Amino acid sequence: MRDAVVVMAVPGAGAGGGKAGGGGAASAAPCAACKLLRRRCAAGCVFAPYFPPGEPHKFANVHKVFGASNVSKLLQEIPVQHRGDAVSSLVYEANARVRDPVYGCVGAISSLQQQVEALQAQLALAQAEMVRLKMSNDYILHRLKAARTGGGSSYTGSPSSMCSPKTAEPEAHCKATPELLDMVVDQPSMDDAHFWSY
User: Fold this and answer.
1) Could you tell me which residues come within 8 angstroms of residue 143 by beta carbon, excluding any fewer than 6 positions away?
2) 112 and 57 both lie in a single domain
3) Are residues 87 and 113 in the same domain?
């Protein structure tokens, strides 16, 4: 009699365990791709690792631009270690195509290239201005030293006059004359980098 009771109890426990197991399988949420496509998400679904259920818009744009079948074939042909990068590229291109249906990601790349070219042009202008200012400063320091020592100058023209025509006129005012020597302020505490004043 005791054995019969045990035998009757075991099937009841097995039925309960089967219900629990079935409930756990039913609670598994499908991936965003299978949910959008309204199909059953199998255990080996190629979309599941890259399109989680909480990001439905991620696969929606990819499916709209490339198509689910094309994406599935592409992922199956790519090694597993590279599929994550491929999905990231597909998502970026799909989002760019949705924002700009005409140019897509090419429009973003072109805009960035234009910004780079504009910044390079500004950098070239700044470097040219630095060179011009350095040549003008060196020329002024050389003529100032020549004026203080009373010697001649080996310069035949202003170096800055080659960069800007506006600086070619002060050449006549920089000759070492007695009047210029009287106007130079000679202070022992000042080095040669300071300018003389009238």
Assistant:
1) 153, 155, 174, 176
2) no
3) no
Q: Which residue has the higher pLDDT, 106 or 164?
A: 106
| Within a domain: 127 | yes
Rounded to the nearest 10 degrees, the angle between the axes of helix 80-99 and helix 56-65 is 80
pLDDT averaged over every residue in the chain? 73
Instruction: Please state, in angstroms and rounded to a whole number, the distance separating the CA atoms of residues 12 and 2.
Output: 16
Q: Residue 36's domain spans which residues? A: 32-99
Rounded Cα distance, 183 and 192, in Å: 16
**Same domain, yes or no, for 83 and 112?**
no
Q: One-letter amino acid identity for 116?
A: V
Tens of pLDDT along 56-88? 888 999 999 999 999 999 999 999 899 999 999
CA gap 176, 153 in Å, rounded = 9
The structure's pTM equals: 0.48
pLDDT digit string, tens, across residues 143-192: 998 888 875 545 455 554 544 444 444 444 444 454 444 444 444 444 44
Residue 158, domain member (yes or no): no
Total domains present in the chain:
2
Strand locations in the chain (E): none
